[in-house]
Amino acid sequence: MPSLSTFMQILKWADWDSPPEQMNCAMPFGEILQTIAQLLPVLDAAPERMDIISPDQAKDLLDSAIRLYILAPSIVNVLLNYKICVEHGLPLHPTVYYELKEARKYRISHSLGEIQRANELFWKSIDVARACCRLDQRACQDLANFASELPFSVKSFIYTAVQDKYTWIGSQPSLLLALADKIRTSYTPHLVVAAAHGSIMPALVLAELLQVPLYFVRFSMFKRHDEEPIVSLSDQAWLFDFRDKEVILYDEDVAGGRTLESFLKRLSPLFRQAKTACSIRHAGSSIQPDFFGKIWWE
Length: 298
What we know:
Blueprint: H1 4-11, E1 25-28, H2 29-44, H3 55-87, H4 103-106, H5 112-133, H6 139-149, H7 152-155, E2 158-161, H8 165-170, H9 173-186, E3 191-196, H10 200-210, E4 214-218, H11 233-239, E5 246-250, E6 253-254, H12 258-267, E7 273-282, E8 291-296
Parallel strand pairs: 3-4, 3-5, 5-7, 6-7, 7-8
Antiparallel strand pairs: 1-2
């Protein structure tokens, strides 16, 4: 039966030095969910022995795997954006990811019921995205149930993404396997908290490899101009159950180091112990994460 290991085995055939054209995306979210639902059966039909498939079969499987790997993060991305807009009084715009400081301008009031529902859908989005990545037998049904619960404003949201070299390299299966092995040898985390949006793709796999819960906090200094991690009362409430636990704070690409430093400073007081991890640590970074997949010298 296909699984996360099958998915990762197929992905290893990809060119991990160059981000694929498929990363450039602009699609209504509802259409993306339908596309994912079409990709899952293709990968579910993958044979147990990859060495006996034809080149054409291999190409079809790889194309489907890459598309799924690229699109699955949108499940979390869009719902995290929806949650932030509802919690912070921002408009539910069909195409815009708002900066938090813009909330001072709009001050839109959303009901407590809508805020609770947005959080529930966000939590569910993480579970559904993980199920898709591990090719769970229930993933298609979970996806359909999830889609049926979404407000029209969310289904019609235009999800956009562009080619990103370092996010792609940082999502490489071999790096995530190496990182998970390093973490397991000296640490036993009970949770992974990842900095969204860039880390969503690899964090879905990393949490599966570590077999621990996963949570995302938006903090995108360069793409979304966030001044600090966006941690709401609902985030703190969800994370409260892990206050006496050990956690991993993850970002896929540590270049200058400011993002991970700020992430650590803001979130570490919420837990008994927090250690940092990344897929790629650039040699000139100001912070040395506790765990990393590889050092990048470019």
